[in-house]
Amino acid sequence: MTRAGLRHSKALTITGAAAAAAALLLVTGCSGGGGGAASGDAGGDVTIEFAQWWEPELPDGQFQGLIDSFEKENPGITVKLVSGPYASTEEQLFAGAASGTMPDVVGLDGAWVSDFASQGVIANLTDLMKDAGYDDSQLASQIAVDGSTYMIPVVNFVYPMFTNDDLLAKAGVSAPPSTRTEFADAAKKIKALGGDVSGWVLPLSLEAPNGVQNDVMSWVWASGGTMLDDGKPDLTNDDVTSAADYIQGLWNDGVIAPGSFTMKEQDKVEEFTNGRVGMMIDSLAHINLIRESNPDLKFSISAIPAEDGYTGERGIPYASWGIGVAENSEHKDAAFKLVQYLMSKDVNSELSTMAKAFPGNTESTPDFSDSDPLFKTAFDIYKAGVPANEFTGLPTAEDLMRQLGEQLQSDLGGQQSMDDALKKAQTSWLAAF
């Protein structure tokens, strides 16, 4: 499939392992919608809960402002935001899935969808859209399981490389590295500055294992590689082996920040924000947090370095702020009205602008005029590459990350070789397929 084809796909169907193709769903434009003012279920006043990690990653008050506007347009519906960091939201939702107590509306990561759908804990959005008479042609993409939609990507983020400009300059590195050799050289020079400064940060927490997706496999995708073969696990191929060996080399050189085995995504961002690491792979969503937490920090973003000599399109890791409705919700109509509102043309444009993300509505357009200049840089990186996230829609995707993370920890900890780590992970992954 061409980059244009990937970018403009209207619906992505996830059926078992072949669902990895659904990872490539970002769009450059984005489309129409309708918030639709209406009262609560059956005309009565209702309160719905919306659990997500979005509000803390946006400037103070902005997301609540959108919710306030929704409530004004929909008298009778009150929205209670349940906000927390990504890892905390994930833990809450999986606990709620087990106990049947999910909030009415849920922020979703594409890696969770297959599990939640198979458990029957998130509602069939295809049915809700049909019941509401909703025109889904405005949606840039949908995440489906067995032909039915369970998640709608609201906004989409690329995961470029962030570099601390001051640390690079002090280390004598004139520009962000573009190849693996340049990256390793820059990491060594930053580490040589001394103190508590490290070249790169690698979160490998097993509690929140998305570092395997964002910080490990991103090296594979950046050079056009894959971890799958015909939709099935292929962790011992040359693409994955090369990236894993490269990370092993960075570890052996001592340029990776300490604490990797317990570090989560928010810890990684904190290390970078506080100036303790020179480089990290991270979501555009965290630009706001970094700016607010350390206004004096000078940093840049660039494409993730590729293998030396690679000239093809670079895979760009991405993640979505997806949205779904809980199956246990007693107010599905009201919950879906909130989904409609967030996907409407003007609101989705506003949300993507404040989040520094790409819209989920094909008619929405982020406003570049007052945006952080890095947003435009990210858009250029995105247009020059191809979105890549092979974990989206895989069965037990979180568990797959954790299984590989366990083996990587064992290797980096000196208990086994990288070859053995990848072979063991390959065996455990096959069992899930």
TrEMBL record:
Among SUPFAM superfamilies, the record links this protein to: Periplasmic binding protein-like II
The superkingdom of the source organism is Bacteria
Q: Which UniProt keywords apply?
A: Signal
What is the taxonomic lineage of the source species?
A: Bacteria, Bacillati, Actinomycetota, Actinomycetes, Micrococcales
Q: Which organism is it from?
A: Microbacterium flavum
- Gene3D superfamilies according to UniProt: Periplasmic binding protein-like II
The protein depicted here goes by the name: Sugar ABC transporter substrate-binding protein
| Residues annotated as signal peptide | 1-32
